Amino acid sequence: MPPSMRWSSVIPSPQAFTKQICPNAHLRAFSSSPRSNAGRTTRQRRLMFQWLDSQGAAFRDPLPGSTNYLSAYDNHGVLRRVKAGRGNNTSSRSADEQTASDELSTLGAKSNESEEADEASNKKTGGDENRLPPEGRGDRRPFPHNKSFFSEEVLSEEFREEIWRRIMKDGMSVREVSATTGVEMRRVGAVVRLKEIEKAWLSSGTPLARPYAQAVMSMLPQTQWNSAPDARKWHEQINSLPVHEATTLQIFEPTSESRHFTREDAAKAFDENLLSTDERIPHPEMVAKEKDVLAGLPAELVAERASAREDAEIEAKQKQQDRIAKKQAAIKKVDTGRWQFRIQEVKVDDAGADGRGPRGTGWRYGTPLMDRKRGQIKIPTRVD
Amino acid sequence: MADASSSRLADNPIQYSVDTCDLCIMVVKIRLARFGRRKAPFYNIVVAHARTARNSKPIEVLGTYDPIPKMPTDGEGKPFKDVKLDSARAKYWLGVGAQPSDPAWRLLSMAGLLEPKYQPNRPVVPKPSTV
User: Please, which residues 112-131 of chain B have a Cβ atom closer than 8 Å to chain A?
Assistant: First the structure.
């Protein structure tokens, strides 16, 4: 009986085998298991190593200050925006793969060695030959097969701090901050609330997950704060009309041809209490100002009218608050141990001569309850 | 003796027994009338004759009392109970001798119209010894 043949004497060790089929494989610790059809290199396997050496190589050392999404690189592993930028600047130079990767590597090295270069690429101030061109919308597709998904920008740390400072320190209104910074009002509110929590944690000594936040922020596209109002980039659309539930119905509204059917009429057609679109948008004051500008009024008059409108609004709001405060002050509050009793003054005469007036206080006598009538549905239709 | 009795009759020509007095002078009370649903009480604070049914039509409705506590909308502070009261009319009825029931007394004393009957935190005054 011949001696039994050892498996390793037929097929080399897994590492050696991998090295044999792919010379660059010494870096890879994975895929080292021997396979039954080990002698054959499949197409998928070849393509995988091809990808790892070309496009995938860019992700081995991710570019700092950039999102590093798959869509930002072409099939040869060259940043699309670098290629496009070079095509525009020096058309004479040949845009071959080798020089592109050279440039890429120098860029990477530069960003690694100095913090300033990192900052520069972060701020996307392109123009200099050695700096990264700004990231376009096409570079912000994390899923190459989903062409319609773009990674949207988030507010930078500095931007959020500025919003908080304007609201809490300068005492500006949310609407004003939204209009000047180009951030939606709901987001302004959220930023201020989260900043308040962060500051409360800082003062109470609760540890913050700073490294985590920095890592996440470094991977996301950001809107940076710019102190110059003209150079400021708007973060998002701030004056888009929210969809009201009442307007989702399809309504056939017959009307005469001669009738001037306005937005107010359209709102009435949907619901009796619905405001028109002009009043439902988040920033009607911006529209009013723009209308003044289009009417050809001088800039001083436009500003004057805008501030007058603002003052009128503040006054109306103050009046409403005063009315509520007066109503609250008229209610006597008595604190017993467990409850607070709120004693409100009423007038017996409000019930009218027969004591059955609609403004009278208390349960009414001699009138049947609505739910005792015929045809009243008692099954609740909504739960609050 | 007979003279004396006749003179007394002359001084007070109408003599009432205790029973007839109750029938002629109706006691007016300030009390609560329960409305609302099962497990959802709601009270009218009413002025009514003492011998009428609880929910019968009263002389006057002074206000309401909602005993179900509600949470404040801002979520801060104690749960509250709503009381509505015409204190001017309540004062008038108290002035002409209307007798509040105990729960009505409690509510009226909160509104500052009466001295509270039951004060759990009042300091106890020691009674002088009778011996």
Answer: 112
Is residue A11 assigned to a domain? yes
Whether A60 and A127 share a structural domain:
yes
How many angstroms separate the CA of residue B77 from the nearest CA in chain A? 9
Same domain, A245 and A179: no
| Phi, psi (degrees; rounded to nearest 5) at A178 | -60, -45
Question: Where in the sequence is the domain holding A18, given as residue range(s)?
Answer: 7-53
Q: Is residue A360 part of a domain?
A: yes
A363 shares contact with chain B (CB less than 8 Å): yes
Which of B45, B80, B93, B113 should we substitute to test contact with A (largest number of A Cβ atoms within 10 Å)? B80
The verdict on a CB contact (< 8 Å) between B61 and A335 is no
C-alpha separations of B78 from A5, A344, A375, B71 in Å? 86, 17, 40, 7
pLDDT of A269 reads: 94
Q: Write the CB contacts of A341 (distance below 8 Å, at least 6 apart in sequence).
A: A333, A334, A335, B80, B81, B83, B107, B110
Query: Could you report the per-residue pLDDT of A197-209, keeping only the tens digit for each?
Result: 999 999 999 999 9
SS3 B41: strand
Distance from CA of A284 to the nearest CA of B (A): 29
**Same domain, residue pair A85 and A100:** yes
Residue A310, CB-side half-sphere exposure with 13 Å CA sphere: 13
Token pair of A333 as six digits: 């509050």
Specify whether A369 is located in the same domain as A300.
yes
A170 lies in a domain?
yes
Q: Check if A332 contacts B (Cβ < 8 Å).
A: yes
* Residues A77, A29 share a domain: no
Task: Say if residue A17's pLDDT is above 70.
Answer: no
Please report residues of B whose CB lies closer than 8 A to that of A362: 44-46, 61, 63-64, 84
B106 touches chain A (CB under 8 A): no
Taking contacts as CB-CB distances below 8 angstroms, the residues of chain A near B83 are: 341-344
DSSP element (H, E) containing B32: strand B28-37
When the candidates are 3.30.70.1170, 3.40.640.10, 3.30.1320.10, 3.40.50.150, the CATH number that belongs to B30-110 is 3.30.1320.10
Is residue A231 in some structural domain?
no
Q: So what's the ipTM on this one?
A: 0.78
Q: Are A33 and A101 in a shared domain?
A: no
Are residues A363 and B85, on separate chains, in Cβ contact within 8 Å?
A: no
pLDDT of chain B, 131 residues: tens digit per residue: 444 444 444 455 455 444 545 555 689 999 999 999 889 999 999 999 999 999 999 999 999 999 999 999 888 889 999 999 999 999 999 999 999 999 999 999 999 999 998 777 777 777 777 65
- Which of B43, B45, B57, B61 to probe the A interface (max A CBs under 10 A)? B61
Question: Which domain-ending residue is among A140, A165, A188?
Answer: A140
pTM over 0.90: no
Give helix A115-123 / helix A97-113 axis angle, nearest 10°.
Answer: 120
Whether A351 sits inside 8 A of B84 (CB atoms) is: no
pLDDT band at A98 (very low <50, low <70, confident <90, very high): very low
How many independent structural domains does chain A possess? 5
